[in-house]
Specification:
The complex is a heterodimer of chains A (89) and B (281). Chain A is of the alpha+beta class and 89 residues long. Chain A contains one helix and six strands; from the N terminus they run E-E-E-E-E-E-H. Chain B has 281 residues and is an alpha/beta fold. The chains are: A alpha+beta (89), B alpha/beta (281).
C-alpha cells in the first residue's frame, strides 16, 4: 500500500528521479469537421493525456489532460474542432 | 538489407535507452508545443522550444551564433557531446534543430528514429523532472549556410534543369486549396506552389509508427518524381520545419550531395508581390 492508502506499484526511481511510463497508449482515427485526425491518448502518472493530429500533414492541433481518458479526449476534441474551422479561398 | 547513406546520424529507441546515461550523450526533446515535454520526457532529456529557442522571431531567421552557444551551453552540451534529438510532430522540429546544428558545425548530432511518438508507444520510461546540467561554455567552431536556400537563390535556380524543387506540404496546400495545414494559422496571402516544384509530402518518408521508411522505399518515392541525386535539390514547406525533415531524408538517409532547405518557404513566397505561383495539382 502506498502513502495515500492506495494499492499499486510505486514508480521506480533512478538517481533521485521518478520514472513513469505512458500506460494504456491508444491511437484512434476519427473524422472531425470533415477531416481525418488521429486521436492519441495515454496515462502518465495520475493524468490521462490526449493529443489530436491532423493526419495530413501530421501536426498536433490540440493537446489536453484530464483525470480520465474520456475527460482528456473530450477536451481535445472540442479544442481541435474549434481550430479546424475550414479556411479556404 | 540496404542501409542508409549516413546511418551514424540515426539512432533507435533501443540505442537511446541503452545510452541515455552515458556522460557524453545529451538528449534534447524539441517541440513546437512544449507541454508535451512537461507531460513526460526521456529521463535526462532537456527540453527545447522551437518557437522561442530555435528561431529568431524578430528577424525571422535561424538563431544567432551567440544564442546557439547560450542554448548549447545551458543544456550542458559540449563541443564533443553526442546530441540526440527527438520530438513531437514526427520529429519535424528535431529535424529543424538538426539542420541548424549542422550549419553551426556541431560534430555529432543524431536523430532518434520515430521520435517522441515511438518512445511513448513502446512504453518506455519517462519522467516529468527536468535534468540539472552544468553549463558547458560551448563555442561554435564554424558556420556555413550551405544547407540553406534563400529566396533569391530559389528565384535564380527555379528554371534550371539542374535544380529540383520539392514542395513537401500536403496536396491541398500545394494545389492552393488550403493556405495552411488544417488547424494551424494561415501565414500567407495566397495559395499554390512555386512553379515547377514537385509535391512529395514529408510524411511519405515515414512509416505509421513514425520511423523512416527503408532506403529502397525512399529512393522510389523521390526518384519516382524526378528528385534524383544528380540534381541540386531545394525543399520547402510553409515555414521550413517539414522541409528540414525532408532535407534530412535526402541529405543523410539517401546521401544526395546537394540538398538545401528553403526555410523562407511558402510564408515568404506566398506573400511576395509579383512572385510567380502555380495552382492546381
Amino acid at each position: 500500500m502506498d502513502r495515500v492508502g492506495k494499492y499499486g506499484r510505486r514508480p521506480r526511481r533512478e538517481g533521485g528521479v521518478t520514472m513513469l511510463k505512458a500506460d494504456e497508449y491508444r491511437v484512434e482515427k476519427k473524422e472531425l469537421a470533415g477531416l481525418q485526425v488521429n486521436v492519441t491518448s495515454y496515462k502518465i502518472g495520475d493524468f490521462y493525456h490526449c493529443h489530436i493530429d491532423n493526419i495530413d500533414p501530421g501536426a498536433t492541433i490540440a493537446r489536453t489532460e484530464g483525470l480520465t481518458r474520456e475527460e482528456a479526449e473530450l477536451a481535445a476534441l472540442a479544442r481541435a474542432l474549434e481550430r479546424l474551422k475550414p479556411k479556404t479561398r | 538489407m540496404q542501409s542508409y547513406s549516413h546511418p551514424e546520424v540515426l539512432v533507435s529507441t533501443d540505442w537511446v535507452d541503452a545510452h541515455r546515461q552515458d556522460p557524453n550523450v545529451v538528449i534534447a526533446e524539441v517541440d513546437v508545443d512544449t507541454s508535451a515535454y512537461s507531460e513526460g520526457h526521456i529521463p535526462g532529456a532537456v527540453g527545447w522550444n522551437w518557437q522561442t529557442q530555435l528561431c529568431d522571431v524578430v528577424r525571422r531567421d535561424i538563431i544567432s551564433q551567440p544564442d546557439l552557444e547560450h542554448l548549447m551551453s545551458n543544456s550542458g552540451i559540449g563541443n564533443d557531446s553526442t546530441v540526440i534529438l527527438y520530438g513531437d510532430n514526427n520529429n519535424w522540429f528535431a529535424a529543424w534543430a538538426f539542420w541548424q546544428l549542422k550549419m553551426y558545425a556541431h560534430k555529432d548530432v543524431r536523430i532518434m528514429n520515430g521520435g517522441r511518438k515511438r518512445w511513448l508507444a513502446e512504453g518506455r520510461e519517462v519522467t516529468r523532472e527536468m535534468p540539472t546540467r552544468n553549463k558547458s561554455g560551448y563555442k561554435v567552431l564554424n558556420y556555413d549556410q550551405m544547407f540553406r536556400a534563400f529566396r533569391r537563390q530559389v528565384e535564380d535556380e527555379m528554371k534550371s534543369p539542374l535544380t529540383a524543387l520539392v514542395d513537401v506540404r500536403s496536396g491541398d496546400e500545394y494545389s492552393g486549396t488550403l493556405l495552411a495545414p488544417p488547424g494551424l494559422p494561415e501565414t500567407c496571402q495566397r495559395g499554390g506552389h512555386i512553379p515547377g516544384a514537385k509535391n512529395i509530402p514529408w510524411g511519405l518518408a515515414c512509416n505509421e509508427d513514425g520511423t523512416f521508411k527503408s532506403p529502397k522505399e525512399l529512393e522510389a518515392i523521390y526518384a519516382g518524381k524526378g528528385i534524383t541525386s544528380d540534381k541540386s535539390v531545394i525543399a520547402y514547406c510553409r515555414i521550413g520545419e517539414r522541409s528540414s525533415h525532408t532535407w534530412f531524408v535526402l541529405k543523410y538517409l539517401l546521401g544526395y550531395p546537394n540538398v538545401r532547405n528553403y526555410d523562407g518557404s511558402w510564408t515568404e513566397w506566398g506573400n511576395m508581390v509579383g512572385a510567380p505561383v502555380e495552382r492546381g495539382a
